[in-house]
Amino acid sequence: MIKNVVFDVGDVLVAFCYKKYMRGLGFSEECVEFLSDNMVVTEFWHELDQGVKTEKDALEKFPKEFPQYKEEILKFWDNIQDIVEEYDYSEPLICKLKDKGYGVYILSNYPIETAERHWPRFKFLPHTDGHIISAYEKITKPDEGIYRLLESRFGVDLTECVFVDDRQINIDAANALGMTGILFTGYDNLIEELKKLDINIG
Fold first, then answer.
1. What is the pLDDT of residues 28-62, one digit of tens each?
2. Rounded CA separation 52/47 (Å)
3. Model pTM?
4. Largest Cα–Cα distance of the chain, in whole Å?
């Protein structure tokens, strides 16, 4: 029996729109692609999620490595509160699940400093029953420990949880622990997948 729905945040409840963000700052397309490949979609960003690197580390590392884009890199980190945009459906979705009696939790890989900027602004967050942010815990999905932390901290039974994430590797890890994983590919698809589990929220 499903009693809880657990959500990832990035590209599920909010858009991690780093290219749009950089274009909005006036970066050239060449710069957008370069910084995407060499700063954002990198092991360093994963280390931010793990809480073992910080924005200070980024500001020490990247301007030295890529001096040709020093100005853009500094502007990137100065305005990083704008790198995500909450989806319009997120707050109503969680409110509908709560109205149906489900527990709603957040399990997210997220850096500390950006979480401190972004999370207070998320309209969906006050409606949830609890959240776990990877960088504070020094552990990231798909490590089994972060799912077990959800279980122990909030007293949920993982076999009674649906887990929604946009990465298959995280879904596979959740399934292995008895959760019911849904790979997020879009809002409409999510609603259909929830219906298959007799979770009907319209």
1. 999 999 999 999 999 999 999 999 999 999 999 99
2. 6
3. 0.96
4. 56
